[in-house]
Amino acid sequence: MVQLWQTLLLPSLLFNIISAVPALLPSSPAIRTIYEFPNETWIENIAVRSNGNLLLNILSSPDLYELSPLNPTPGSAKLLHTFPFATGLAGIAEIESDVFAVVVGNWSVETFTTTPGSWSVWKVDFNHLWDNLPQVSKIADVTKASFLNGMTLLAPGSPYLLIADSVLGVVWRLNYLTSEYEIILESPLMQPAVSPIVLGINGIHIFNSSAYFTNSFKGFFARVPITLDGPNAGSATGVYEIVANNGVGDDFAFDREGNAYIAQDPSDGLQLVSPEGKVTLLAGNTNSTIVEGDTADAFGRTKLDENILYVVTNGGIAGRVAGTQITGGKVIAVDVKELL
Ligand SMILES: *[C@@H]1O[C@H](CO)[C@@H](O)[C@H](O)[C@H]1NC(C)=O
Ligand SMILES: *[C@@H]1O[C@H](CO)[C@@H](O)[C@H](O)[C@H]1NC(C)=O
Ligand SMILES: *[C@@H]1O[C@H](CO)[C@@H](O)[C@H](O)[C@H]1NC(C)=O
Ligand SMILES: *[C@@H]1O[C@H](CO)[C@@H](O)[C@H](O)[C@H]1NC(C)=O
Q1: In the record, which residues are listed under signal peptide (predicted)?
Q2: Residue 315 alpha carbon to ligand 4 centre in Å
């Protein structure tokens, strides 16, 4: 049988078959780099289309890429759009079926500072293709914001996006249908620490009618119950509370049970925080390159990869492990069930 395989399959074909099912073969490791961008590319965020393709927001250039995780051959990430008059992309959220909102603005990966007033939110619509590319249009210039970062839709069918402002330490509510925006949540728990850099609330996602958020350098994961409907949709209905003092946290994703998988840029770990606040380090730490520079993550959406957490990185531009070189931002497939 071995000889038959060898005769029938050219090595390159066999390679394609193997690389077409990353992290799914019994022998494949639980943590696999499936794609790497050119050196010094900072991937800041990720969303997954219903067809399984990954959308990758670059922060070191104003570019949105798409990658098929089932066949991520070198160079196969497709540039979908370069946004004008901006230096990079931050949060991303699906607002309608196969329509995504993307945060665009100026944050320097050299000085680690924002340009207040430079931030806008755009719509990327895969239901209306032009030349095989999604139609892109601006939703709003959020000129009063200082640094728009993580973003989530308030609830399925809602017109509201909640967007973390990491420098002002507030959450903006943007109506993507009318382009109106205002501050909807504010708390000392969202305020930035002043060092090492001014960066407070970072990732934000909704679970069980609460808004959960990381505070980067105050080093905790917190939540507040909110109302999902009506004119006050998005506003607090209870107290702000710390879920876990878990250290540095960037963006994160929930599983169906409400466990949060937190990317720990710049401290290079991947954590699981349970709804009760129990913290488990799944991978990495400040001395490990396994998920070095991890900024955000998202679960696969097809039967083949629904247990795979796709983690994206900045290649160590921030959080570089001592004694290593900066690399290109990576997409890492993590089989979380294998790590528990
Ligand atoms: C943001 O950066 C872009 C590209 O360098 C520049 O064209 C634009 O003027 C900047 N925006 C602001 C508000 O400074
Ligand atoms: C959802 O919130 C309710 C009310 O706060 C709480 O009793 C319940 O335990 C929460 N469920 C989960 C899965 O966290
Ligand atoms: C990283 O390495 C340093 C130096 O060896 C050590 O002091 C520190 O405890 C290590 N940290 C972790 C999280 O392993
Ligand atoms: C990537 O670029 C940085 C900065 O120029 C450099 O220090 C590093 O060696 C490069 N990495 C690789 C793998 O070439």
Answers
A1: 1-20
A2: 10
332 CA to centre of ligand 4 in angstroms: 20
Among all bound ligands, the one having the nearest atom to the CA of 286 is 3
Q: Which amino acid residue places its CA nearest to atom 6 of ligand 1?
A: 85
Q: Can you give the CATH number for the domain in which 170 is found?
A: 2.120.10.30
Q: What is the mean pLDDT of residues 44-71?
A: 98
Nearest bound ligand to the CA of residue 84: 1
Q: Which residues lie closer than 8 Å to 205 by C-beta, 6 or more apart?
A: 150, 152, 211, 212, 213, 252, 253, 254, 260
Q: What are phi and psi of 275, to 5 degrees?
A: -55, -25
- Residue 275 Cβ inside 6 Å of ligand 2? The answer reads yes
Query: Separation of 287 CA from ligand 3 center, angstroms?
Result: 6
SS3 content of the chain, % helix, strand, coil (to 5): 5, 45, 45
CA atoms of 43 and 283, how far apart (whole Å): 19
Tokens of 223: 């939540």
Domain of residue 243, residue span:
2-339
How would residue 320 be classed by pLDDT, with cut points 50, 70 and 90? very high
Q: For ligand 3, say whether the CB of 288 is within 6 Å of any of its atoms.
A: no
Give the DSSP per-residue string, 48-79: E-TTS-EEEEESSSSEEEEE-TTS--TT-PEE
Selection from 220, 163, 142 nearest residue 45 by Cα: 163
Contact criterion met (CB below 8 Å) for 292 and 268 = yes
State the pLDDT confidence band at 19, using cuts at 50, 70 and 90.
Answer: very low
Q: Which ligand is nearest to the CA of 118?
A: 1
**Under a CB-based contact definition with an 8 Å cutoff, are residues 223 and 213 in contact?**
yes
The answer on pLDDT for 1 being more than 60 is no
How far apart (Å, rounded) are the C-alpha atoms in residues 137 and 23? 36
DSSP state of 237: S
277 touches ligand 2 (CB under 6 Å): no
Phi, psi angle pair for 19, to nearest 5°: -75, -10
* Domain count for the chain: 1
Residue range 95-104, pLDDT digits in tens:
999 999 999 9
pLDDT of the residue at 195: 87
